[in-house]
Amino acid sequence: MKHYNEKDPKDNVLGIAFGLVLRRLRQKAGLSQEGLGFESGYHRTYISLLELGKKSPSLQTIFNLAKILRVELSDFIKNVEIEANSLSKKGKNVLE
Question: Which 3-state string (H, E, C) describes 27-79?
């Protein structure tokens, strides 16, 4: 039996897509999770949870991360949308 607060990974395509894009941008910037955490003021474990799709960032957090990663907010969001569409087209089997 599934509890009300347990999330099915298939229901979190957007969160997983955000995490994949964040990881890609972080690595492209040459930052570790700890380095991004230091630069942004967030704890390394929070960065990790974002990248794993286990936490949902606030709008302010997305703004802050985009600024630190030197990427336009609109490009960041567009990349998340593209990644989410790609995951959905794969039948979400990568999420199981």
Answer: HHCCCCHHHHHHHHCCCHHHHHHHHCCCCCCCHHHHHHHHHHCCCCHHHHHHH
